[in-house]
From TrEMBL:
Family recorded in the similarity comment: Belongs to the ABC transporter superfamily. Spermidine/putrescine importer (TC 3.A.1.11.1) family.
EC code(s) of this entry: 7.6.2.11
Top enzyme category: translocase
Claim: Translocase is one of the keywords in the record: yes
Entry-linked InterPro entries: AAA+_ATPase, ABC_SmlMolc_Importer, ABC_transporter-like_ATP-bd, ABC_transporter-like_CS, Mo/tungstate-bd_C_term_dom, P-loop_NTPase, PotA-like, PotA_ATP-bd
Keyword Transmembrane tagged: no
Pfam families noted in UniProt: ABC_tran, TOBE_2
Organism encoding this protein: Streptomyces alanosinicus
Quaternary structure and interacting proteins, as annotated: The complex is composed of two ATP-binding proteins (PotA), two transmembrane proteins (PotB and PotC) and a solute-binding protein (PotD).
The encoding gene: potA
Record-level Gene Ontology MF annotations: ABC-type putrescine transporter activity; ATP binding; ATP hydrolysis activity
Protein purpose: Part of the ABC transporter complex PotABCD involved in spermidine/putrescine import. Responsible for energy coupling to the transport system.
Reaction catalyzed: ATP + H2O + polyamine-[polyamine-binding protein]Side 1 = ADP + phosphate + polyamineSide 2 + [polyamine-binding protein]Side 1
SMART domains: AAA
Protein name per Swiss-Prot or TrEMBL: Spermidine/putrescine import ATP-binding protein PotA
Length: 389
């Protein structure tokens, strides 16, 4: 029986980083990135994600803890002795060399003479075979970044580290390159660790995302898991938009918790609640804007039984093509966000209209209100921009 290849596993055990000025950028962190996965470290500026990446690369010494790549401890190895390569936001290509020679550089430095086949294969991988004899300044930003990726991959690293590699590109090119990088990772099959502050980028590309906040990983999981089941208000607001409604635990009903919010009741599956569920305890009830349906108050009788419901008044409505984004004032929460797909638009849903918001209890999640207050992260319907600020 063959043992599985784990040489591309990245294992961080209790690593932390306190800089010389006494500031701790990364709190002791345990993390395993399995071989062959596309892993994203996601967080706002200053949360410690680049420092974490640099400790994996060997560009920064951890203050405590150990870094393993596969079974090999590399904590004190210099960068060039680690089986990793890093791609930075600044492509750092050699301007005087053409694209072929930029990609060939690593091989030539190792004294390899016949580089043609390898370089051509690598240029094909990043779809730049036609551009081989151009100089970097003759390429677009996205093409230059693909050269940087090819130049890193030609060394056959076990792990490719990407530090905001798309940060310098405009939005459209960024979106194209996200898909391109994902394709390249699937094709080469090595571990990618990608640092970004862009939640959409992390969710588009990565199998697993670690959301960092103030030097700690707040939550780790698949993009779907983080989005559908956030554990903290930080994650709920950093990944997309969440409506958070303050409520009090009333009773339990089978697998559900019944909560009091304003004068009404809301139902939450207990399995989707990360807060203590003792009667009288405070819970923040979370619901994503696109999970809510909006019904004019005159038609409230048509809403099926068993749905969570709140009353409110439309404060604002923005038509943005694919959907209409409403802001609703409700007795339990100001400014609830509701996104309704523009399929059959109800002309009565305009500012000033009385409405009922309703959704399936299965889409509801529960967060610890006390912890959120401590962390200063309570806020309804936080926007991505606010979360990223
Ligand atoms: P960004 O996206 O802005 O790069 P980041 O999440 O990658 O942010 P880091 O670069 O890891 O954050 O920095 C984390 C914190 O450590 C920041 O507050 C930063 O100011 C601080 N820091 C980084 N390098 C040093 C240093 N050499 N000395 C002192 N503090 C530092």
């Amino acid at each position: 029986m063959t043992t599985p290849d784990n040489s591309g596993d990245v294992r961080l055990s209790g690593i932390s980083k306190t800089y010389d000025n006494g500031f701790t950028a990364v709190q002791p962190l345990d993390l395993t990135v399995p071989q062959g996965s596309f892993f994203a470290l996601l967080g706002a500026s200053g949360c410690g994600k680049t420092t974490t990446l640099r400790m994996i690369a060997g560009l920064e010494d951890p203050t405590t803890g150990a870094v393993h790549l596969g079974d090999q401890e590399v904590t004190h190895l210099p960068p060039y002795k680690r089986p990793v390569n890093t791609v930075f936001q600044s492509y750092a290509l050699f301007p005087h060399l053409d694209i072929f020679e930029n990609v060939a550089f690593g091989l030539r430095r190792r004294g390899i003479k016949s580089v043609k086949k390898q370089v051509e294969d690598m240029l094909d991988l990043v779809q730049l075979g036609e551009q081989a004899r151009k100089k970097p300044h003759q390429l677009s930003g996205g093409q230059q970044q693909r050269v940087a990726v090819a130049r890193a991959l030609i060394n056959h690293p076990k792990v490719l580290l990407l530090d905001e590699p798309l940060g310098a590109l405009d939005l459209k090119l960024r979106r194209q390159m996200q898909l391109e990088l994902k394709r390249i990772q699937t094709e080469v099959g090595i571990t990618f660790v990608h640092v970004t502050h862009d939640q959409e980028e992390a969710m588009t590309m990565a199998d697993t995302v670690a959301v960092m906040n103030a030097g700690r990983v707040e939550q780790l999981g698949s993009p779907t898991d983080l989005y559908e089941n956030p554990d903290t208000t930080f994650v709920a607001n950093f990944l997309g938009t969440s409506n958070l409604i303050e409520a009090e635990v009333d009773t339990k009903n089978g697998d559900d918790i019944v909560l009091k919010a304003g004068g009404g009741k809301l139902v939450l599956p207990e399995a989707r609640c990360s807060a203590p569920t003792k009667a009288g305890g405070k819970v923040l009830v979370g619901i994503r804007p696109e999970k809510i349906s909006l019904t004019h108050a005159d038609d409230a009788g048509d809403i099926p039984e068993g749905r969570n419901r709140l009353t409110g008044k439309i404060a604002d409505a923005s038509f943005i093509g694919v959907s209409t984004q409403y802001v609703i004032d409700s007795p339990v929460c100001d400014e609830l966000a509701v996104y309704v797909q523009n399929v059959e638009r109800d002309g009565r849903l305009v500012p000033g209209a009385d409405v009922v918001l309703h959704w399936s209890p299965a889409h509801t999640f529960g967060l610890d209100a006390a912890q959120s207050l401590l962390a200063g992260t309570v806020g309804s319907a936080g926007t991505e921009e606010e979360a990223a600020a």
